[in-house]
Amino acid sequence: MAVLATATAAAIVPVFACAAWTDPAPISDTGSGFPELGVGPSGDIAFAWGRFGSNTVQVQTRVERPDEGLSPVQTLVSAARNTSYASTADVVVDSAGDAVYVWSDAGKMELRIRYADGTLGPTRLIAPPSRSMYGPRIAMDAQGHAAITWTDTSHPFAPQLDVRQFSVDSGFGPPQVLTRNYAVFGDDLAMDAAGDAFITWRGGSAAHTRVLKADGSLTPVQTLSSRGIYPTVAVDADGNAVYAWGGTDGNGNHRIQARRRASDGSLGPRVNVSAASGYPVDQTIALGPGGKAVIAWKQTRLRTRTLRANGTLSGIQPISPPKEEVREIYDSSNVVVDSAGNDIYAWTGSANRACVRVRSSGGLGPVQCLSPAGDSASDSRLAALPTGGAVLLWTQLSRDGQSRVETSFGP
After folding, report:
1. Which sequence spans correspond to the domains of the chain?
2. Which of 4, 192, 362, 402 is found 20 to 30 A from 49 (Cα to Cα)?
3. What's 12-410's CATH class?
């Protein structure tokens, strides 16, 4: 049954009361967590997670292809638990249904392809093994051309952010150095339809960006803000990008800020997205029709605002219920725009449930909590589907202490 809302609170509707989202379904065995999610342009969905046994650590996957259902579980890597720290870092899918996985494991950064026919390619090293490597992250276009970034801290006074191209058909390109700085971390990347990779990072106290072109050349470094932490980026098919980061305004207030970069490389003005009060963090971006950029962030509650194509901003709107602290926004897509232009938000908060909410042209819908009360949900991942709607993935810890990865589709 639905929980009645007060005049100021959002209605919370359990999933069984709404036909819009499917009932949660487990996709992993018990002992699993840290899920990741990739969706291809043709609708192929790659699920990945870590599984932790008494003696081994594994990275596993299942793939759902249109009209074929969910594949069996496959193990991408398995290692002795006392020597391995394997965890999935990222997964992407091309239009042919080939999935590319990257992860780090005890100083090794590795990559493996699961081809559309279900066969697994060999495990490949992204860079020479080193305990000083962190990452990796990956973005890929529809044709299977990818860019991979990682941080190398082997030079203590000049850590560097590296990048390398990869193709499903032809393998690796040469590694390149994006930047060297005494404090390089918090990178993000996205790729347009032409195969150009838009990369952003914090270097020192500033937020920067650079583009790795499909031909392997690098554009000059551009500074987005002299003060910016954990920058994120989203880019449309034509190479128009939107960046957001945690910064400060002229009065010293902590703000989520954003900036556009046009396809010709010109930067638009910086705008303050969040209010001047509180400490906003963990921003994510989703691009939609008409050039809109939907930005969500944590400021106790999950909040959102839209940066329009003309540079103006909508009002700030809270998404999660009052008095529920939102935990899981960082390093995941917790806002997406589906093919119909609806904004879909997901979070796990202090209520320990995986919840979603949809904003359409008709307004903001009710909060729907997909995971059961009494269990504990975390590590939510959200991705839009090319046919409309979205898929949500999370770790479910049951009351008997068993963890597994579950998923739901909607709306």
Report:
1. 12-410
2. 192
3. mainly beta
